[in-house]
Amino acid sequence: MAVVTTAKWKRRHLTLALAFLGIFLAILSQNWASAEVFSSASEMKEVFRLERELVSIMDGFASKLQTKLNKINSYLEEFDEVMKERRQSPSEEDLIERIATNPIHAYKMMKRFTVDWKSIQKDLEEDDWEEVEFQLKKKKLGTSIPRDEDLHGAAQALIRLQDVYELDIRDLSKGDLGIGRERVLTKAGLSAQDCLFMGKHCFNSGALARSLEWFEEAWVMAGQEGNKTLKQEQVQSFLDHAAKVHDTKVLKGERSPQLFPKPVYEEAPFDQREKVIQGIRDEFQKNVTNMVKVENFDIDRFNALCRGEELRDVKYVAKLRCHLKGTKEHDPYFKLAPVKEETVHLDPGLWIYHDMLSPKEKQDIIKTAGPFMMRSQVQGENSNKQSRVSMTRTSKTGWLQDSMHPTIGLLTQRISHVTGLRTDTFKDESELLQVANYINGGHYSPHHDYVHKQRDPNHMIFKQDGLYIGDRIATWMFYLNDVASGGRTVFPRIGAGVSPEMGAAVFWYNLHDSGDPDKLTLHGACPVLYGTKWVSNKWIREGAQTFNRPCSLERKTKHDYE
Q1: pLDDT tens-digit profile of 488-539?
Q2: Which CATH number fits domain 148-286: 1.20.1250.20, 3.40.50.360, 3.90.800.10, 1.25.40.10?
Q3: What DSSP assignment string belongs to 112-152?
């Protein structure tokens, strides 16, 4: 009878546990106003806090169930001790006789019925689930609820980090993040099942070479885990199919970064990957130059610069200098504290200004931007030019007016003093201050900051009252924090890069003094490998700079990289 009751009890509470999981998943699947949680530092923190609270509720529920189960197991173990009398009993009747006439057995039997059974019956009658359900309903889950899009976005971020930083999957799966001196060993890790999912993600996106690496690692890990999360036979079917599709394309003569040079039956995926990486490095060593004349190597050079590789001639780099600078002799603004200017590149000019932002000013910007942060968008290519969520820029951004906080207006004036350009936002001399936050592989693919001249060099931008505003003549970008690993700002066509440094700012001109676009200013934000990255941009318009940066008499007629 006890055994039957225990089985019913287990089934009942298993049903409750499944109900708990069902309601929990139903809560998560509600249509909350969420957008790509994985790309926001603040929302990812909220997700972790929420998960920790939910786990605490589940842990409490499980503890109560375990306490009840312990009582039942204790009862069963004591009854098993009684049944050991069977060994000296030749028959069932003799067994019953031995137990019923033994005063100790009699006492313990009475105790089990009058004490133990009452306690167990009380536990069975108590419904702990109602309290758990009540606690769940009390939770204000808000908007930070991950969706399927977040899972695939986070997976794509791992692939992006792998591609840019040449991370070995075998190290990555063990939580080894970082490159060179920025290497970070974490407690995070991936299971065989995780690696299989990553392989599927790569295969479905057409990255066949990467899918083979992930499938191979999943197969190895499944064996190491003792087929805990999945069986090696399951992985083998995916591995064989991906290898067949890959090798068919290669044997047909297809060549792509998504494919290995050889069929994988001739040479293993990881061996081919090492040769591909070394081949790219050798190619760069043969073609070290001060600036690039063709676009074909933009992405490869972008990735190399993200890894911290130097692509310029050593003699050229040796010419670069740091010095203290005052923008104008008659301007007393920096007489007592000259600007610390570092020249990163000569032509086109690229400068870093150190210690341009105090810790308090940094906090003022981030705190003010908090309520306005949303998924980065870019201007659409359709006829109405509506903005759309950017796939080339995975970050959260917000725009701040000078009037939102005294610090913002002060920084706008400071930029004007350092650059010698007019930056009054209310007069459209510059745009609003943009704040951006990157995490978990967040990046911005190579792009130019000028907008209209990329489409039409002769395009003129006016306000409704006829005032000429012009395109973005220059870019000023504050670094609001240090980044643990990754997150550089790099210029692939000139081979230069800048690492984030809290309080520093980087500055460059997007247009020649003739007004033509400077195509060598192509730049991008490298993926954040570990940690978070906060930057703040101020784009300066050309219309107000007539007397601050006069147009030259010569107009460029050719592309800078031809």
Answers
A1: 999 999 999 999 999 999 999 999 988 889 999 999 999 999 889 999 999 9
A2: 1.25.40.10
A3: IIIIIHHHHHHHHH--HHHHHHHHHHH---TT----HHHHH
